[in-house]
């Protein structure tokens, strides 16, 4: 045992390694990404790890290995689970042999996600047990226990941290490598009555699952991480006896705040929201008049407690989201939780120092980096299609930031790969609109290909613009099928995007460097003029993975002060100093793109010189 | 004794390394540490912060308003944004040089941080406010990349962290790549070696 300062995701990864995980698969997604990366960095020779092409593929790979008896971990963010839900829902009926943990990171806020969906609901929907850690240390220990539970009950289990667990750091006690559990898969044993899903099998499995989950309610009532913290001080002295129920980071925040006071109400910590530890909850509710539920996303604990009070006819008022005592959306900040507790306990919040009238600090929205090829791609399309009736369907990735002024080139964004289909739908209703769908290289492989086949098959008019920056940039530069690298460090044959498109039947497929403005504009014009489904691959590496060029310079003699460079592309490398347009050498990537649109030829230097 | 620290700045300024150095030094002394960081898209020119907590019996890494013993600000506007975390008698160490938002040029904003510094001077009593001219310090040091350790050095000097300069220097050896170690050490000790400089750069206003 030794102590390390670890990020939550790294702690989960080290816990999985300590539990003898033999295969890890996943698809990048904030806040889950660092888990798989940490396993890749720290794995022994017997652990296989891969970034799969998407979450569905990752789930299936992990399931297959677990069929063969391996301990497996599959990682994704909450919306990734939607992609993987098809195999998941059936997998519960079939079951697994080796322990299989499905790590899904939820994102209250949301801080970097499309939705505030709650994976605990997926747990009850798919009938998979769910583990919900409250701290980094607990996450490290709990994932090891999750593997044990999974194996013992022959079912995949959810492990659901949230952003404030995933991206927190803590000094935690971890096992030394020689203390790790060694786990060896025995291999796949053929048994068609076990591994082939059929209605008859599913009927029997359904009964078995429900029986097991009823049993797990009791098992989890004994599980030490579900816990009742007794009241302290004279909290029970008043006429109304109160309790708090909480899970995840909210529970840690509640405990932190209660610690400050002499008196504290009793607290139920729910570490397994599904199956719910009913017997423990009954013990907690006994003698209480009011319980406040503090949790993020959906009112899962609250609904469970309401069900229990109904089932056992208890006269306890359960408060929370449904009673409008807590907020519907967003993250539970410490200030928010403090407010809930003060209100519930009838206390006044301690006065904060008076800070007078606070001047508003500047707003800092995220923008495409200086030298980002996406900026150039968007600008080329904008320029080529100026004055035409168009729709620009965007997708998930850094390039969603193309929506910001002055580019303003993202009309829609829904989920991974959706832009391709949305563009087709809009085209059906407005055939005179020239429809464009922008999709990144990693997103192309993950979930855009079927949409393009749909367009070809159904004879849509569509220009697909693939923004190929040779990496999965948004989540921190992971490799993907087009990069020719795998997470095992191997060199693989790079999957050729242009060849895929031609294979589907596209005849207009052109690969262009978006940093060369004239060529890029010309390619867009020609593509738009063609009939059917066409594709342009804008290929230029992410500015964050290549060495920046020499910063550009503006010749003050030549600059006519038109500010076209500022007004049209919005690059953070171009700034105003005392009313004069200048290049900020600390920001400029030396890409030379802005020089191409200067009407006075005043911008020079950079990469090509 | 628990210590609560807020580090704040703009993506790319190196707040995370400063936070890690404090954490590592505290751990060397056998103390427990928790922190919460901004990770992801906000790092691209957005505002970033760390909550760092040192002590026993911590449950969560996040701070409530009015709990911070120290705000270590890398940018005056970001210091003001996080000022609500400062406790009544807390200490502020901040860089006075503004980082303009990447959109400032487009929106025509004339933000230069001076309002923020003026506000801080008005709000925080002089013995608890340490203003560091980061740009000047970096020019003297000859590197634009060491603002984080310059500010950390100033913070350690105030004594509020309960850590000595040697504690940080020791962990720097294992956490900073050898080729950058000397420069970082020099930057960290900048105010020790420039006694007059400390007053020049980290003016204590009375």
Which fold name corresponds to the CATH topology of the largest domain in chain A?
Rossmann fold
Structural class by secondary-structure content of chain A: alpha/beta
What is the helix tally of chain B?
A: 10
Radius of gyration of chain A: 27 Å
Strand content of chain B: 15-25%
In whole angstroms, the N-to-C terminal distance of chain B is: 30 Å
Number of domains of chain B: 1
Write up what this structure looks like.
The complex is a heterodimer of chains A (609) and B (206). In chain A, the strands form six sheets. Chain A has a six-stranded parallel sheet with strand order 3-2-4-5-7-6, sandwiched between helices. A five-stranded mixed sheet of chain A has the order 9-11-10-12-13, sandwiched between helices. In chain A, strands 14-15-16-18-17 form a five-stranded parallel sheet, sandwiched between helices. Chain A folds into four domains: 196 residues, Thiamin diphosphate (ThDP)-binding fold, Pyr/PP domains (Rossmann fold, 3-Layer(aba) Sandwich); 119 residues, Rossmann fold (3-Layer(aba) Sandwich); 167 residues, Rossmann fold (3-Layer(aba) Sandwich), CATH 3.40.50.970; 54 residues, Alpha-Beta Plaits (2-Layer Sandwich). With 609 residues, chain A is α/β, with parallel strands linked by helices. The mean pLDDT of chain A is 95. By secondary structure, chain B is α/β, with parallel strands linked by helices. In chain B, strands 2-3-1-4-5-6 form a six-stranded mixed sheet, with helices on both faces. The model of chain B has no long low-confidence stretch (mean pLDDT 88). The interface between A and B is large, with 56 and 55 residues. Strand 8 of chain A pairs antiparallel with strand 2 of chain B, so a sheet runs across the interface.
